[in-house]
């Protein structure tokens, strides 16, 4: 990544008890992969086991869970899908645990736990989170992906000591930007 492209990127750092970074992983014609996502697309799912809990308006998917919505893919060990039933099922929220990964385009986000809030169009990952695109990395304790704006924010709070990709117990956000040869 060249320095002019880095300067053109949208990122801000706020210091205090924790650092918060809002980062657009690319600028110009290469819009961030999570930007402009249509969260109204149908949701497809697959898992080793599916349990419909009709009275609680939820579906529990477990074992190698894969959830696709358009070109966005969420994988996890287990998910609970909350829905409303007003004649047609409407997904409200997906809670995921067990090595949660979210992919779209060239970007990949990972965390121990994840929530996809369909009403607010937010994906929140926590527990040793990482956001990757090519050689660029961003690590911390909690990641929020706003599907409306395409802005991804990482907060250092909650970084578990020794968690993969985290900044240990410092509560700081860490990362790497690629530079040209």
UniProtKB/TrEMBL annotation:
Signal peptide: 1-31
Low complexity bias (residue ranges): 156-172
Entries under InterPro entries matching the protein: LPS_export_LptA (IPR052037), OstA-like_N (IPR005653)
GO MF term list: glycolipid transfer activity
One Pfam family of this chain: LptD_N
Biological processes per GO annotation: lipopolysaccharide transport
Gene3D superfamilies (alphabetical): Lipopolysaccharide (LPS) transport protein A like domain
Residue stretches in coiled coil: none
CC terms in the record's Gene Ontology section: cell outer membrane; outer membrane-bounded periplasmic space
Keywords for the protein's UniProt record, in alphabetical order: Signal
Location of the Organic solvent tolerance-like N-terminal domain: 47-150
Region span, Disordered: 156-181
Official protein name in the record: OstA family protein
């Amino acid at each position: 990544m060249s320095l002019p492209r880095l300067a053109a990127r949208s990122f801000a750092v706020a210091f205090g008890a924790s650092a918060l970074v809002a980062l657009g992983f690319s600028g110009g014609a290469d819009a961030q992969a999570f930007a402009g996502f249509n969260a109204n697309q149908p949701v497809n799912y697959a898992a080793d086991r599916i349990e419909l809990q009709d009275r609680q308006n939820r579906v529990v998917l477990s074992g190698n869970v894969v959830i696709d919505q358009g070109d966005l893919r969420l994988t996890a060990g287990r998910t609970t899908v909350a829905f409303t039933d007003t004649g047609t099922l409407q997904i409200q929220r997906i809670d995921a645990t067990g090595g949660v990964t979210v992919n779209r385009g060239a970007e990949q986000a990972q965390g121990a736990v994840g929530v996809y809030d369909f009403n607010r169009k937010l994906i929140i990952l926590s527990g040793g989170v990482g956001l990757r695109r090519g050689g660029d990395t961003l690590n911390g304790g909690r990641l929020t992906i706003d599907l409306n704006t395409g802005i991804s924010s990482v907060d250092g709070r909650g970084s578990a000591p020794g968690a993969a990709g985290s900044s240990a117990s410092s509560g700081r956000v860490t990362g790497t930007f690629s530079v040209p040869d």
